[in-house]
Amino acid sequence: MVSEPEYEVRSDRNADPATPITSGGRPLIGGEAAAAGRSFLVAEYGSEEAVDQLIRRGRPRIGESRTGGSAIVRARISDRDFAVFKKLEDQTGRYQADLVREGVQLLLAQDVLAS
After folding, report:
1. pTM (2 decimals)?
2. I need a labelling partner for 38 at 20 to 30 A (CA). Which of 9, 48, 102, 115 fits?
3. pLDDT bucket at 23, cuts 50 / 70 / 90
């Protein structure tokens, strides 16, 4: 995986308008394009294992276990509460799921402190 300082160097180099843009040659398609893309990713991230970890399918599981799906909690809220919730989401730039998880953690911590 590319270190943070190396990422910054590469980012600065690629963002510099003085950096020449060179042709990559003829366009690749199909399996040839997939192989070239994979080769590029391995060069960027250092190993096949690092690339495989980065491109896992699906959402990552929440919690310690790496297998199976995470528990799902569903609830209905009023239109008014949802409008306020959406405003919070927009103001913080966080996903609904992150806000709900934080809310659940706060309630659980409050309950533990009250017990």
Report:
1. 0.44
2. 9
3. confident
